Amino acid sequence: MKKITALTAAVFFAANCFSAQAKSVDNTPVVEVYDDDIRFSESILPYEGGLLISNFGSATMNPAPDENKGYIIFRKNGVNQTVVENLHKPTAMLAKFGHLFVCDETRLIVYDLKDRNVEPQIITFAEDDKVLNALASNGTTLYISVTDSGRIYSLDISNPARMIEVQPQIWLEIPGPNGLAVGGGVMYIASIPADYSNVTDENVIYRVRDLENPSAEIFYNVPGLYDGVALSDNAKTLYFSDWLTSSVKSIDIKTKKVRVMYRENGIGPADIAQARGILYIPDLVTSRIIEINLNR
Asked: Which of 12, 140, 144, 259 lies at a 20 to 30 A Cα distance from 211?
């Protein structure tokens, strides 16, 4: 099994990446770059014409075990509002059925979006599930990736006000599952090493064609430090972020043609999102958000 060590990755960065100064490649315009109220943002969720942005809020990208400075802001028309506080290390978010689901390290927290006075529900996982990383849904099923244990769970969210009555079920196991995207009954999974360093040929982009009988196949076979995945509005293009190449790329699902959408030396492109022709890139390393116009 071929490995790419952290040292090799550093050499790769130096040889292949450049400082774009917030300029995309392939003539894809950067719409906006902003960092106000952003503190180690890991994930973005388009929501009601704005964006929900999760932030670690700590002094570093690795909060201490007793830190609870994480927060989520809602950004709309350039105005930020803090909507959730006192989290440890919030990553992915998903809004459905009037509830907001948030990955916060070892737990999944469920907030009632219609009544802020309702106590958040906390769903726990197996003892060795330490890093809940991404969320996706299909109908009334929520999928949760756990990077360190290699598990993807399914969870029935048909009655989100009573999540205490359901338990996560192991749905699929692959090496280092990170970002998840579902469209047209198909799931795409980004794989990253559990130690976030030693890349192997198993750290690729996977596809699951049948969600009822899951089996992972390799969709994109170039190893990387893959983080987020997002589908285009018509589900014909998959976007994915890669820390190894400091870039976000697209791949045509039918032709497999790959295009570099954005590359900048030293960035940490995390859990990306796409909505209405705009690609949202949270740069975890430098605490800013980069927006790309896909329609021009």
From this structure: 259
